Amino acid sequence: MRLSRMGQKLFLILGVALAPACQSVVKLETRIPVQVPYIRNSANECYYLDEFMPVPDALVSGESGAMKLRYYTYNVANYKDWDNREIILSFYSRDDKCWSLFEEFYLLR
After folding, report:
1. Where does the pLDDT of residue 105 fall: very low under 50, low under 70, confident under 90, or very high at 90 and above?
2. How does pLDDT run across 52-102, given as a tens digit for each residue?
3. Which residues does 41 contact at the CB level (< 8 Å), separation at least 6?
4. Structure-model confidence comparison of residues 21 and 47, the more confident one
5. Phi, psi (5° rounding) for residue 47?
6. pLDDT at 13 over 90
7. Predicted local distance difference test score (pLDDT) of residue 7
8. For residues 78 and 54, is the Cβ–Cβ distance under 8 A?
């Protein structure tokens, strides 16, 4: 069976008009924020991070001179007054055991 020119145009118009109704529905999973403990930003404070910090989404370790550095990134976290934010906490240490906080960031996305 062949469609006439008018039938082809009508079929094309109906196809374009009904295409949005055929889209897939995707529901994204909401993530539960990690509760990051309150940490003071002070050189006099020393924390044993390996004992209590929640597992981060990304952890970067490195060195700068004699100092050891760690950057903890949480994609969705509650920390201090920041709720449901991406948070980056930076720590330094001289002995790789006792860590002090020196920077804290939250990112807006």
Report:
1. very high
2. 999 999 999 999 999 999 999 999 999 999 899 999 999 999 999 999 999
3. 101, 102, 103, 104
4. 47
5. -125, 140
6. no
7. 63
8. no
Domain boundaries, the chain: 31-107
What would the two tokens of residue 1 be?
């069976």
Q: Backbone phi, then psi, for 49, in 5-degree steps?
A: -60, -35
Q: Cβ neighbours of residue 87 under 8 Å, at least 6 residues apart?
A: 36, 73, 74, 77, 79, 104, 105, 106, 107
- CB-count burial class (<10 Å; 0-12, 13-18, 19+) for 34: middle
Q: Any residues with CB less than 8 A from the CB of 32 and at least 6 apart, and which?
A: 76
The three-class DSSP label of residue 27 is coil
Q: Which residue has the tokens 């404070």?
A: 45
